[in-house]
Amino acid sequence: MPLCFVKDRFTDAQDASVSITERGFRFGDGVFETVRLRSGLPYQWKAHLSRLALGMDALRLPPPSADIAATARELVEKNAIRDGILRLSVSRAPGGAGYLPETAPSTLVIEILPLRPVPAHPLRLTLSAYRRSCATGLEPGLKTMQGALSTLARLEAQDTDADDALLLDTQGFLSETSGANLFWRKHDTLYTPPLSCGIVAGTTRAAVLRLSPWKVEEVEATPDTLQHADEMFVTNISLPVHPVASLGPWSWRKDEAARALRARIEEDDASLGWQ
């Protein structure tokens, strides 16, 4: 059984627990990161730590008592893991009256998870009835524990035998799927929604922006824009770059950019490591 880290100690994953009064459980009051491990090293580690810190600042979460970076590295070494997912969770600790919290150190949980199988086929998407909020008052792009919309979107997809659901923002612009950022290509340009459309600032999305040989533009676009695209793909940690086959009545057969960018990410050894 793999080890995990909870609050201030390493423990067997099967024995790990947090209190029912912990505010991450009660209110979804926290942030998290999922980091790809390759050959025992994290991919884009600094980007993940930076986004985690931004989320903690935005939610005004006190730092945990343990050092996040050092503890994560020790956990990977203790588990002798080569390939998988490193999940970091920081949530507000128990205490406080109702929504008003106390100032105790936040709860830190670090887990090692297996990689999910990559679908053998391009994804079939459905258009979700739910909407991403683009005006929450929080800094855009954060990865918080409040995942109800994503869960409902995945259930929608399951109801229609689709692989995932594509959400729009509250203004009707393309946002993202339940758990992945969206890209589409038209001729020699890639397009992706901006952070203002309620998307998560995905680290794999950032890798595409950095590594793409195509010009990339962030645009507010309505769904009908996609019917004229040459290809469409999504990005996240588990599906680094994966092509989309269809969305409702529209379909795409090309995957030139998806294949090229997936290869570039797999070869991006300079972004591996703890520094």
Protein model, in words:
This protein is an alpha+beta fold. It has two domains: 111 residues, D-amino Acid Aminotransferase, Chain A, domain 1 (2-Layer Sandwich), CATH 3.30.470.10; 146 residues, D-amino Acid Aminotransferase, subunit A, domain 2 (D-amino Acid Aminotransferase, Chain A, domain 2, Alpha-Beta Barrel). The chain is 23% helix and 29% strand. The protein contains six helices and 15 strands. Strands 7, 8, 9, 10, 11, 12, 13, 14 and 15 form a nine-stranded mixed beta sheet that branches. Strands 2-1-6-5-3-4 form a six-stranded antiparallel beta sheet. A hairpin with a 6-residue loop joins strand 13 and strand 14. The longest helix is centred in the N-terminal third of the chain and has 15 residues. The protein is globular. The mean pLDDT is 95.
First and last CA, distance? 28 Å
Report the count of strand segments. Answer: 15
Quick one: CATH superfamily of the largest domain? D-amino Acid Aminotransferase, subunit A, domain 2
Structural class: alpha+beta
